[in-house]
Every structure is written in C-alpha cells, then in structure tokens.
Amino acid sequence: xxxxxxxxxxxxxxxxxxxxxxxxxxxxxxxxxxxxxxxxxxxxxxxxxxxxxxxxxxxxxxxxxxxxxxxxxxxxxxxxxxxxxxxxxxxxxxxxxxxxxxxxxxxxxxxxxxxxxxxxxxxxxxxxxxxxxxxxxxxxxxxxxxxxxxxxxxxxxxxxxxxxxxxxxxxxxxxxxxxxxxxxxxxxxxx
Length: 191
Hints:
Elements: E1 2-10, H1 21-32, E2 36-44, H2 48-58, E3 62-66, H3 72-81, E4 88-92, H4 94-98, E5 111-113, H5 118-130, E6 140-143, E7 149-151, H6 174-179
Parallel strand pairs: 1-2, 1-3, 3-4, 4-5
Antiparallel strand pairs: 5-6, 6-7
Helix pairs in contact: 1-5
C-alpha cells in the first residue's frame, strides 16, 4: 500500500520552505505499520504536471493532501486538475479542520479529515488495503456514491504522545528548508 502526501508552499510570502509536522507524524505511524509513504512538495510555482507525472510513475493507492488556509486555493485547484484521480483522495490539515464544509466544493475529493489524522489515516489505509468500507472511520467526512457527505464524529485527542513514533524526518528535505531564503526579519522574544 502506497500513500502519497501532497503539501504546497506556492507563492509563499518571504520565500521560505517549511516542514509540516502533521504529515511527518502521520507518515511515521504509517511506516511503522509497513506502509510506503512519499511526499510531493510543491514549492514556489503551481505545477500540476509534476504531481501528475509522479502519480503516474509511483501509482499510489491513497493521495493525502494537506492544506493550511492560505494554500487551500492551490490544493482545491490541484484536486480539480487531477480528475479523474487514479487513487482514493483525502484532505487534511488546519483548513480541513476549521472549514470541513470545503469538501462540498471539491467533487473530486473522496474524504476529508477533521482534527488529528494519525489514526484516521492509518485506519483508512488499512480499510482500503483490505477492500473494506471507509465510511465509519472517526474524524473522516466521506463522500458517498450518491454525492452526499457522511460526517463521522471526531475521536478524543491523543493524550499519550509517546505512543506515536518520532516524526518522519526523511520525508522533507531538511537542508533545503534550512537553506531557503527567508526575506523577513527574525526577532527573538523573551521576558
């Protein structure tokens, strides 16, 4: 089972690359269970053809998009540009949690994760791999065959973070993040 994460930093003010801890945490948990993960990090300009080529070459079973609100417009356009999508697709991140009704705006998206995504994505990957239904997974809003949206309840937050593996630091290019040009003054604040 192959999971492709998609994260965008398009037209970012200041020009700095970023690391997404949620993706790193989810990827680490999936890898611990034997799943293959990969990241498509779209930085700078909108280039859907590169994502399309990676999907065609790697053939993931699940595509997991992550979006912060300033990047949502690009993610929504990516999902539209990828149609028909060859894999099950899910959106997570802060935008999905704060504005889950955005699933209604993206007919090409299969599901949306509200809140923490570690265990919902793990359960989703297991269900897809086993050919089981995915519409009863807590934290997921799932588009049904008739287009309606099933809104599952959210689960309690993970209270023991030690049960999670350390975040996947191989997914993002850390050196590129450190070396990226950031045209903003940084200040250190203290009491």
